[in-house]
């Protein structure tokens, strides 16, 4: 741990260094709540949370239940945010088994899994409620469903209460794993943005900073556990409209290079990660739009950032990152020495 504070942390963020972990940490920080930031890499954790006096930093090995137990010692609630590379989705269930074993050994009382829409498969209704069948037709969806089953089956076992909070696709300032991130980068650089199409079908996105306050509320909502709940975005928007608005902020017309499913297959011949996107392409042609009325009935109205504001904040973050990149480039290579006659 980073320091020996007299007030212990009772909330642990497992896989904390990503965008979701940073969002939850920000909400806990705003409430003055201590938390434990847990991840594989201490440098990444220090970079994200090293300046936060409310954060205790702990490293773990999710492949080892004893390491999970050590990281979870003294916690009341664990929030599971662990992501894996797109070509390693088979590791989701065993990692969750290890985590559950470690949490059990540590006596943790509550577990929140931040989940995805993958287990639903193609939507059979819109919007999708928690009663929608989980019938994934993709390997990734089956792995996520198996992970969820482990969490839900653990509810009520050895004093553990569990919850799956399902999110749609996400975006936000500096959120690099969003497939909209390239749009903000392209607008800020004045270059071409690479997108995955089709881009004219309405899609739902959650602005990642909106997640934190919801999780902070669910930590103290016992009635939320033992089930799946949805957190929706601010309605729907087409990816093309996101690009149009982002480039407008830069005073530019959109420059887009759109890859459809056929192009993804071709690129996938040399890029294994792009190959893994092919089976999930249905989410662009048949997007899942979530109904979160059950969540709002539990914790009250949810503050959702409108797309105009979220796009502006995301663009401004990309613009700042681009300015920093250019400044660093000038420092590293200030230019060639003038030719002397």
TrEMBL record:
Residues 14-219 form the NAD-dependent epimerase/dehydratase domain. It comes from the Bacteria. Transmembrane segments: none annotated. This is NAD(P)H-binding protein. It comes from Paraburkholderia edwinii. The lineage of its organism: Bacteria, Pseudomonadati, Pseudomonadota, Betaproteobacteria, Burkholderiales.
